[in-house]
Amino acid sequence: MPLRMTVTVAKVLRVFLEDAAEPRYGFDLMQDTGLASGTLYPILARLEGAGWIIGEHEAIDPEIEGRPARRYYVLTAEGAKAAREELAQLSERLRPPAAVRRSPRLGENPI
Amino acid sequence: MTPLLSVLFSFIGGLLVVIIGDLVSEEVRGQLDRIPMVLLKIAGRRLPRELREEIYEDEWLPELLYILRRAEARPVSRLLTGTRFSFGLLRSARRIARARAGASSIELKRLISATNAMQVVGNIAAVLGGYILICGSAMILGLVFSSILGLVGVIEKVGWVLGLTLTVVLGVLVGSLVGLFVSPSMRLALSRWVKPHKTLIVQGVEPRHGAAITALRALQTFITGPKGNEARGIGFMAFLTYSIGLALGIVFGVTLRRSALPFEIAGATLAFLAVLRVALVDVASMWFRHRQRRAIRRKS
């Protein structure tokens, strides 16, 4: 499924790619990316929809922990590959040109 | 008032202030936590009803409770973080629901594939079990037949030529009958035990499998046919194993009593395959079909 790559999506993917096997929780991702929940969760839903990440519930005993099990996300193999490619392309698009021609300053000889 | 009483009243007064202050602060802390909870509840209300359980109860609420119950967080920072979390979701609940509705399709496809994979493995277990049962029975029949006719090890008395001729004649005559009798009954048994690939509740959604399951599915379709009511090659297999049993008795003097171990192993394998088939096709895939229905409800 195609996924529109934006800078915020790239931010989230970069955190996932730091350790592709590491499970990521919503609140931890908010802290790692600096994104608000209203921005992060739609991105997570889109990434899950595209099959790049998969959501699972943590294996805890709610009675012992005193809270319900949280949902975490893990990058899929397909997602890791696609994310690396997309991030490389985005980085290429955002890279400034090697030699920027400087416009002549006032009083400077344009030649 | 004596100085002693003044000190006593001051002490009691101070104690009361501390206790009341503590109670008030506890109450305020509890009330502060309610603000993000209420905001999140409103955010949950903005979700479509069919997605509410999956998103609000299974994901947002546990995350907010984690935020609010972190041991290291102070009451005010908990309030701010929790409110920020809930408010963000309140703002984007509809967008999340739209994106998740798309994710449900992916989940549905995964469920359909998993259900079908379980049915394929269960069906293969049923087919394998059926073949073990028929072939084992045919071999036992061959061994018993040679014993009943008093032909066990007879080759040593009558010589190789007559012994082999006897084996071939009896093998072909009785073995053909066994093969002819077995084929329709095996077809009938497989038509009951092999479930066709009707895992697809949603039309047009085909399961996706890896190489192993694809190969197993092709093998099962080849053996049982697309409707699961054929038993390709079973007649010949029954004929062959009956003849082997007969030859073992006549040529090598093997009796059923002396060769019980292979049949015991086959019996145990058969029991295992039957359990596997029931577990995968009747229990697990039923549960997965139930999950498919839930996913469809969420999707629609």
Broad CATH class of chain A? Mainly Alpha
Biggest interface, residues from each chain: A-B, 26 and 26 residues
SS field, number of helical segments of chain B: 8
Low-pLDDT runs of chain B: none
Number of strands of chain A: 3
What is the beta-strand fraction of chain A?
Answer: 5-15%
Judged by helices, strands and strand pairing, the structural class of chain A is mainly alpha
Q: Give the biggest beta sheet of chain A.
A: 3 strands, antiparallel
Strand line-up in the sheet with most strands of chain A: 1-3-2
The value of Rg of chain A in angstroms is 20 Å
What is the CATH architecture descriptor of chain A? Answer: Orthogonal Bundle
In percent, how much strand structure appears in the residues of chain B? under 5%
Q: Indicate the multimeric state.
A: heterodimer
* Overall domain count of chain A: 1
Question: In one word, what is the shape of chain A?
Answer: elongated
Alpha carbon gap, first and last residue of chain A: 52 Å
Radius of gyration of chain B: 36 Å
Outline type of chain B: elongated
